[in-house]
Amino acid sequence: MNIIFSEERRPGQVVVEHMKKAAELCVKEEGLEPDRVEISVTFVSTEEIHELNSVYRGKDAITDVLSFPQYEDFDNLPKEGILCIGDVVICPEQALIQADEFGHSGERELVYLFVHSVFHLLGYDHMEENDQKIMRNKEEDIMNQIGLMR
Asked: What's the angle, vertex CA 49, arms to CA 48 and CA 51, rounded to 5?
């Protein structure tokens, strides 16, 4: 598993290690070989994520995480070579605000947002109630496996 982390606003090594382990579990669950998968992760300010959310989603608001998947159909993935499945953009400032609101650690919130985004990169969505339930169950399963329970 190759995760390319931006250096700016990068969280501590413990969070990064949890993210790496979580990503491996996510892709394994979807039947992908972790050694073939690559993800880019960028940490941005509230101003930057606000601008990105406006440009790419048409929403004039700060958000916590954005996902930019590279594949729409995982049934037609190349059989060989590296699979760059997409880019994740996380706003640590917003994550820490949310962690406080939800009453859990900033570490858990950052890792959860990353897991949420990885599942988006893997083709999951939460627009419909049933899809949301499936995605939330997968997210919580991964979080429990890495020891960051709710």
From this structure: 65
Strands 2-5 and 65-69, bridge-based pairing = unpaired
- Residue bearing tokens 């050694």: 35
Distances (CA, A) of 146 to 8, 21, 51, 115: 25, 7, 32, 11
Tell me which residue has tokens 């992760």.
Answer: 41
For residue 39, what is the enclosing H or E element? strand 37-43
pLDDT value, residue 79: 85
* Structure token pair of residue 46: 């509230």
Q: Is the pTM of this model over 0.85?
A: yes
Query: Domain boundaries in the chain?
Result: 2-145
Tens digit of each residue's pLDDT (9 = 90 or more) over 33-83: 999 999 999 999 999 999 999 999 999 999 999 999 999 887 788 888 999
Residue bearing tokens 């995605």: 135
Cβ neighbours, 10 Å, residue 100: 12
Assigned fold of 2-145? Collagenase (Catalytic Domain) (3.40.390)
Residue pair 50/62 in contact (Cβ under 8 Å)? The answer is: yes
DSSP type of residue 8: T
